[in-house]
């Protein structure tokens, strides 16, 4: 039974009486044993692959890395046949920073192919099974219901939930960290766009992609995020020191243990008709925790929210169509050779065969949708309109927050903060608990609705932290439910500090 093999302590490689090699062997065996049932990790690091430094803030802390982030010591497949044999000649900036901080990279985690999916079922490695177990569940792993770990960073969330690592890196384009975190009952953090380097991350949609962190608690998330949240000259979208400092100066000042003076907005638009009734009580419990800490809860409106999901998929698919054009069988990825014939263009037929065999059905679908949206006769009606909606979503947030978005400030804001605005926004992370893996109703258009509550923050580039409501601990019949805290751009430290305090309040 899985519950018997899940330890209560995150696996770490550290000095012990057994010696480094013996400890590493036990660590590897534990990960492999758990992974047989969960399929969270697609490549376990070898015992001699560690390049961690002897000292650092994350010394010997076990961290897993999503398999679309380049690592020179392990394959980077993006869960795609297109890259099944690919090995990067360099480490992504976030991987290098973790190694310099002393972390042990324990393996690469499963994902939806190229990050395109919400249930982690579109993978050449197979689906990820949610490792969460109900407190009253005593059936064997094989006989219990198999639920999705969420996508696309489902492998990272499941590895954390199963205590296979202390924390894991994921990527979030429209909710790919927050949704799995909600489903698996862990904490997931998407930073402000540009605060964590994307250098060495295989691109899906460049204007939306973010690297983030998944861990059991906000405190652990913050420990890892602080190491990798630094400017990087190799990433042209990385925010400068000056811009980060300017944003931080406008964030509200908090005490160490209280949230007095903090204004929390709850948007009505984030409670759509698709929202399951089981989500309401956990969300109320988190809001009650805010009130107990001294925060003020107010109702706010973000009227452009209903249009955000459609705009997101137009923009994301269009950028994916452009980014994945490089996988042509010549420059990158799989190459399928086609025999020369008397008629037809051999090069074009080889190109078509390479992309047909190399990309899975979901990726092919999104490439076709994005290519159509970028056509000259459709560009204005689809892509340009989606960009206008994106700006409307951003404007909604800026009108709601008390602090300004310093990225687009033309002049300094007024000295007095807007007393009618809010400092953070709180809403459910997902419209429901983790669905069953074999639920056919979630394989069509309904699968895209899973992202309806997460894409607005992505379109606006805002920091978003999904924390677990503790209802599933008190009410043993419930699966985990996540609640998201969203802040103004650059207020990441404040969002994480708020998350830590709410975490402690919920667990007390």
Automatic annotation (TrEMBL):
Protein name (database record): Glutamyl-tRNA(Gln) amidotransferase subunit A, mitochondrial
Protein source organism: Pleurotus ostreatus (Oyster mushroom)
Localization per record: Mitochondrion
GO CC terms of this entry: glutamyl-tRNA(Gln) amidotransferase complex; mitochondrion
Broad class of enzyme this protein falls into: ligase
Gene assigned in the entry: HER2
Record-level GO BP terms: glutaminyl-tRNAGln biosynthesis via transamidation; mitochondrial translation
Residue positions of the active site: 66 (charge relay system), 152 (charge relay system), 176 (acyl-ester intermediate)
Taxonomic lineage from the root: Eukaryota, Fungi, Dikarya, Basidiomycota, Agaricomycotina
Main location: mitochondrion
Gene3D superfamilies on file: Amidase signature (AS) domain (3.90.1300.10)
Occurrences of domain Amidase (ranges): 34-496
Region (Disordered): 134-155
Keyword Mitochondrion appears in the UniProt entry: yes
Keyword Transcription part of the UniProt annotation: no
UniProt function note: Allows the formation of correctly charged Gln-tRNA(Gln) through the transamidation of misacylated Glu-tRNA(Gln) in the mitochondria. The reaction takes place in the presence of glutamine and ATP through an activated gamma-phospho-Glu-tRNA(Gln).
GO molecular function: ATP binding; glutaminyl-tRNA synthase (glutamine-hydrolyzing) activity; transferase activity
Assembly mode: Subunit of the heterotrimeric GatCAB amidotransferase (AdT) complex, composed of A, B and C subunits.
